[in-house]
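Project standup — Tuesday

K.O.: blocked on the structure for the chain from last sprint. Re-posting the sequence here as requested.
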Amino acid sequence: MENMIHLMCLAVVVTLGSTGIDFAGALWIMADKIPTDGVVFAYSAYFRSVKPVRFQIWRPVVKESDDVHRLVGETWVVPSIENAKEDVNLHSASVEGEVRAGDRVGVYIEEVPGAVAYTFDPTPPFFLGGVFESIVSNEIVSFKSTFPFPYALSFSVYLDTNMTLYGVTGDPFPDCPKRLTIPSGTDI
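H.V.: unblocked you, prediction finished:
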């Protein structure tokens, strides 16, 4: 019997939008936490420009604190299209990362105009964010002094929660099974 793959989509609905973040160094992390351990195997986003963007995984430094996080993984993406949704499958890029329950997903805008579009959404939960000159792997950032961002960034992250397919856990870059794909609207 073949192992069942467990999929989870975390995110904000990928919606059309022409508005984006227009300052370099903007970093936004989701207020919602990843609810279970897994492996990131894809992202989807509505890109409004072809400027580089980094999808990031942030881990709390202290479990009881929502303020201080460490950058534990990121995927650098240069969109190939403008003003459209694009799927980014990571199993072929060898940049997947293991995530843990409690981690948060972030988006770092490297250049302007910011690649990921957003729509106004005044209902919580908000993103937390700020402007940082540069962010490097393992960097620790305090989001205590950041401000809530009342917008829905147009991206999704997809996790495989069946950790038995990846051998020994703790590998920061496990290879994803080739059969993982982003589900279509009828598969969800």
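K.O.: great, moving the ticket to review. Residues 7-155 form one domain. The two ends are 23 Å apart (CA to CA).
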